[in-house]
Specification:
The mean pLDDT is 83. The longest helix has 38 residues, at 363-400. It contains 13 helices and no strands. It is mainly α and 401 residues long. The termini are far apart. Helices cover 80% and strands 0% of the residues. It has helices at residues 11-40, 46-74, 76-93, 100-128, 134-162, 165-184, 214-240, 244-272, 274-293, 298-312, 315-325, 332-357, 363-400.
Length: 401
C-alpha cells in the first residue's frame, strides 16, 4: 500500500481530534462566560473579568515553549493523558470557586495544563497521520478547534439563558471526563513515543523560538489584540444591549462564514500570494468591528459576526503559514511555537488592557478603537512585504554573483 492510500481517519486520529475538540470546547466556553460570572456572581468588574482571561493565557504562554522538551522527556502519550486529566480536574474545581482570588489562581493552573495538552494533541496528530497526507490530515484536525469556537460559546451562553453557572461548570466537567477517557484510546507508534534520555544540554533562545518568524508573529499579535475584544467581551456587550438571547448565535454565524470561506481563500493564498488574501481580510475585519460598535439590533450583531468571520477567519491560518514559510523545513515546529506564543500574548494583553479601558469608556467606543487596529496593520504588512521582497532580491543577486 502506498502512502497515498493510507487512511487518515484511524482510531488514534479520531481520538486525538476528539480530545483536542473537548479541551477547546471547555476553553472557549469558559472564555466567554467567566467575565459574566465575575460580574454577576462575585460582584467584580470588567477589568477583573479580563484578568481571568489573561492569566490563563499567560500561564499557557509560559509553558508552551517548554512543552516540546517535556514531550521528549516523558513520552507523548503519557504527557497527553496526564495533561488532559489535570485539565479535567481543574475544570471540576470551578464549581467550588466563590472568591475572585481563588478563581484567579485556578485559572493560572488551568492554563498550564491547557498549554501542555494542546501541544501534545498537535504533536500526536502529526505523528499518526500518514506523511504523504499530513497537510490534508492536519487541516481536518484544525477543524476540531474551529468547530469548538462555535460549540463552546454556544453551550455557555445558551445554558446561562436557562440555568445556573454551577450547572454549566458541571456540564464542562462531564465533557472533560469523557475527554480524559478518549485520551487513553490514543495510540502513538513506539518509534514516535520514545522517551529521550536526560542529559546535559546547552539551552539557547533558538531552542524555544524561531527568530525569522518574529516579524509575522508580531503582526499577528496586533490582530489578536483586536480579536480579544470579541472572545472576552461579546457576551457582556450583547447583554448590555438586551441581546443576550442572540449572542449565542454570534459565534455560529462567525464560524459558518469562516469555514465556508476558508477553502477558496486558502487556494487563493497559495495561487496568488498572501497579500491577495490578507489585505482585504484585514480591511473586512476592521469593518466588522466598526459595525459591531454601532450595533443596536439582532440583525446588526449577526451581520458584524459574518464580517468578522470573513475577515478574521482567514488571517490566523494565513499568518501561521507565512511564519512557517520564513523558516527552514526542520525549524517549522519552532516557527509554529513562536507564532502561537505571540498570538496568545496578543489575546492576553488585549483582554487585560481592554478590560481596564472598559472601566472608563463604553463598549461601542472600545470596539471602534479595536476597528482601527487591523486597518493600521495593513500599513505594517505592506512594509513587511516590501522588506521581504528586498531581501529576496538581494539573495538572488548574491546567488548570481
Amino acid at each position: 500500500m502506498t502512502n497515498k492510500g493510507q487512511p487518515i481517519w484511524t482510531r488514534s486520529f479520531i481520538s486525538v481530534s476528539l480530545t483536542h475538540f473537548m479541551v477547546f470546547v471547555a476553553f472557549y466556553t469558559l472564555l466567554t462566560t467567566l467575565p459574566m460570572y465575575v460580574m454577576e456572581e462575585l460582584g467584580g468588574n470588567e477589568a477583573e473579568g479580563g484578568l481571568l482571561v489573561t492569566i490563563m493565557l499567560v500561564s499557557a504562554i509560559i509553558v508552551r515553549p517548554f512543552s516540546g522538551k517535556l514531550l521528549e522527556a516523558a513520552g507523548k502519550k503519557r504527557i497527553l493523558v496526564v495533561s488532559v486529566l489535570l485539565f479535567a480536574v481543574t475544570t471540576c474545581l470551578y464549581m467550588w470557586m466563590d472568591q475572585f482570588t481563588g478563581l484567579l489562581v485556578l485559572r493560572f493552573f488551568h492554563g498550564l495544563s491547557f498549554g501542555v495538552a494542546t501541544t501534545a494533541t498537535g504533536a500526536i496528530a502529526a505523528d499518526v497521520i500518514p506523511p504523504a497526507r499530513r497537510g490534508e490530515g492536519l487541516g481536518y484536525f484544525a477543524m476540531s478547534m474551529n468547530i469548538a469556537i462555535v460549540v463552546g460559546p454556544f453551550i455557555g451562553l445558551t445554558m446561562l439563558h436557562y440555568t445556573s453557572f454551577q450547572n454549566l461548570f458541571l456540564t464542562l466537567s462531564l465533557i472533560m471526563a469523557a475527554g480524559t477517557v478518549i485520551a487513553f484510546m490514543v495510540h502513538v507508534p513506539k518509534e514516535l513515543n520514545k522517551i529521550k534520555p536526560a542529559g546535559k544540554q546547552k539551552w539557547s533562545v533558538h531552542d524555544l523560538f524561531e527568530v525569522k518568524a518574529l516579524p509575522v508573529a508580531l503582526i499577528s499579535c496586533l490582530v489578536a489584540f483586536a480579536y480579544s475584544s470579541i472572545i472576552s467581551f461579546i457576551s457582556v456587550y450583547s447583554n448590555s444591549l438586551g441581546l443576550s438571547a442572540v449572542s449565542s448565535y454570534f459565534f455560529v454565524v462567525f464560524a459558518l462564514v469562516m469555514i465556508l470561506s476558508r477553502p477558496y481563500l486558502g487556494r487563493a493564498f497559495d495561487m496568488k500570494g498572501p497579500g491577495y488574501v490578507i489585505l482585504p481580510c484585514l480591511l473586512m475585519f476592521g469593518i466588522g468591528l466598526a459595525v459591531l460598535s454601532m450595533t443596536q439590533s439582532a440583525w446588526m450583531l449577526l451581520v458584524s459576526a459574518a464580517l468578522i468571520g470573513l475577515g478574521y477567519g482567514s488571517l490566523l491560518p494565513s499568518f501561521q503559514t507565512m511564519a512557517v514559510q520564513t523558516a527552514p523545513a526542520h525549524r517549522s515546529g519552532h516557527a509554529t511555537a513562536t507564532f502561537f506564543t505571540l498570538y496568545d500574548s496578543g489575546i492576553a494583553l488585549g483582554s487585560y488592557v481592554l478590560g481596564l479601558l472598559a472601566a472608563y469608556m463604553d463598549f461601542p467606543t472600545i470596539y471602534l478603537l479595536c476597528a482601527i487596529v487591523p486597518v493600521a496593520v495593513i500599513g505594517l504588512f505592506l512594509l513587511y512585504q516590501q522588506k521581504a521582497r528586498q531581501r529576496n532580491k538581494q539573495a538572488a543577486l548574491q546567488q548570481v554573483e
